[in-house]
Amino acid sequence: MDERRAQLFALARATKGFMPDAEGEALYAAALDAGRSVAHATLVEVGAWCGKSTLYLAAAAEATGSVVLSVDHHHGSEEQQEGWEHFDPELVDPRDGRLNTLPTWQRTIGGAGLEGSVVGLVGESTTVASRVRPGLALCFIDGGHGAVPAWADYRAWTPLVAEGGLLCIHDVFEDPSEGGRPPYELYCEAIATGYDEVSRTGSLRVLRRRSAGGAGD
Ligand code: SAH
Ligand code: MG
Q: Which listed ligand is nearest to 79 at the C-alpha?
């Protein structure tokens, strides 16, 4: 068990992406908590890229018998396109010149032997959300970071989080000199409207949805 976890963490560290080790491990811990909270838990990832954060979530899913729905159109966010900060020419499909992280993501998940614990959903995040049932044990939001996509994700996905379920938001920076505002604004909105903070690691915030009945769970 510990050996398998160590193996998957090592794979995650070697995978391209935007998830520092400590934050990935905190995400894993949150997913383990969510996976244990209910039988057959469903965990959602919004923003997969090459599968780095997916591996942390899937390691916990495998350990708890839950399933990760990993959502991404796999064509990259604005800041990952050519000419922008996080552009990676190795991820461009030579046939059409578009960024395509799906083959890499598939190799990541397949290579880790995690195809039984992860389902890739390739498409626009809000369209996928509109077809997913509520009751998510965990939702990790790490898709487009501009104001429009980030708020669209928040509005589409947070109603699907179960009471007592976890909402994880990445790239939350209190200090504007460290990063963009939208993820921080989403975090503030969640705190103001029914979520309690469970943990913070780097820019990852783990929040728990309060029960409608009132205090705690
Ligand atoms: N979690 C990843 C990083 C995600 S980067 C890691 O740990 O490395 C953000 C991802 O969100 C990109 O892969 C991009 O394609 C995806 N994305 C951005 N906007 C999206 C949208 N509207 N619908 C689906 N995916 C989107
Ligand atoms: Mg991120």
A: 1
